[in-house]
Amino acid sequence: MSQQQQQNITTNNATTTTVNSKSFDEYIAKDVTSNRTHESRQMIIKEYKKIGHGAFGTVVQAYLTPDNSSWYGPFAIKKVPAQTEYKSRELDILRITDHPNIVRLEYYYTHTPPDARNTLFLYLAMECLPETLQLEIHRYTSNSLQLPLKHIKLYTYQIARGMLYLHSLGICHRDIKPSNILVDPQNGILKICDFGSAKKLEPHQPSISYICSRFYRAPELIIGCTQYTTQIDIWGLGCVMGEMLIGHAIFQGEEPLLQLREIAKLLGPPDKKFIFFSNPAYDGPLYSKPLFTGKSNSKFEKYFGHAGVDGVDLLMKVLRYEPERRLSPRRIMAHPFFDELRQELYFFPRGNSQPKHLPELFNFSHYELQVIGPELINSILPHND
Ligand SMILES: Nc1ncnc2c1ncn2[C@@H]1O[C@H](COP(=O)(O)OP(=O)(O)OP(=O)(O)O)[C@@H](O)[C@H]1O
């Protein structure tokens, strides 16, 4: 690379990164608002590379500069069509959330790209993590390997901690799946991302049931329930944990209604009462005849036995038809499956023969301590004996 092609960039971590300026797409945004100081100013945005795209927009890695000399980033910038009549829920939620396991919004702005025929876009500049959990799972399965159990514990615990925070604010993510979970496999940090489907659920207010990606949809959503709770995310957590254990999605329905059949293959047939209370008008297939002989416990043991007794126990307490019987996030965090994280401080990141310190898992804020409550805190915190 020639001297002219190179450009030194000082990131907000005060490190210097050399990037190939040829691949940059550059533009000026007039009102870039900092989510830390709430001040707005003009900035130059240099897009570096595309790192993801989904149903609602694209995500690029980019750097920001107010003066062409100090550079901030890299950020993951998500571009979505700006909703002019009503405000973006994703922006509203990201602006108020502040938690180690929730992706952090650093800046936001609107801008009309030259090729967009006057369409206004909203840009969300978030902290950038190197991978999604989907990619991390794929790395292991494509090499016929299993994700180490300690990594599964580390990731599941952090999903539950992120959910504890979100749910305490009444926010339901509504699209929990491995591609919406960001990880840094080298330090074990996990953050939940993509709040494009998230909503603050109000008691007794209906919400649409056609939400969440098919393989991760809770049974009450499949049945058409519109008065669901944040416990739909707990179902998603169970599906993600199961996927980390077996290397592929655990319930792979070929079409929406067949999804319930896949669930019945593991849990047994759903109870009539559960169907009625989820949606009295449901007229889809019931799968009321057992699809296997024997007990559901032995099915769990057969598929997830390598998670150990505690792992199977946790999964069975999370993947339950009745939402109110699924464990809450704080009870998940207190489950003995995570005792290893409370006892041993180190883990081996992928590809490392040297152990590394686990990320901070118990640095609870005053708010989190209140949400956890005095009766559970001792089961969650590590013991010094
Ligand atoms: N903060 C981030 N750091 C790194 N990569 C990210 C970040 N945010 C998003 N991505 C990447 O971009 C992808 C799409 O982001 P996101 O899920 O927010 O968009 P979406 O349009 O809602 O997608 P989908 O329709 O798949 O839910 C993610 O799966 C991930 O690969």
UniProtKB/TrEMBL annotation:
Name of the protein: Probable Protein kinase MCK1
Organism: Saccharomycodes ludwigii
GO cellular component, one term: nucleus
Alphabetized InterPro entries for the sequence: GSK-3, Kinase-like_dom_sf, Prot_kinase_dom, Protein_kinase_ATP_BS, Ser/Thr_kinase_AS, STKc_GSK3
Family to which this protein belongs: Belongs to the protein kinase superfamily. CMGC Ser/Thr protein kinase family. GSK-3 subfamily.
Gene3D superfamilies on file: Phosphorylase Kinase, domain 1, Transferase(Phosphotransferase) domain 1
Pfam families: Pkinase
One record GO biological process: cell differentiation
Database matches in PANTHER family: GLYCOGEN SYNTHASE KINASE-3 ALPHA, PROTEIN KINASE MCK1
Binding site for ATP: K79
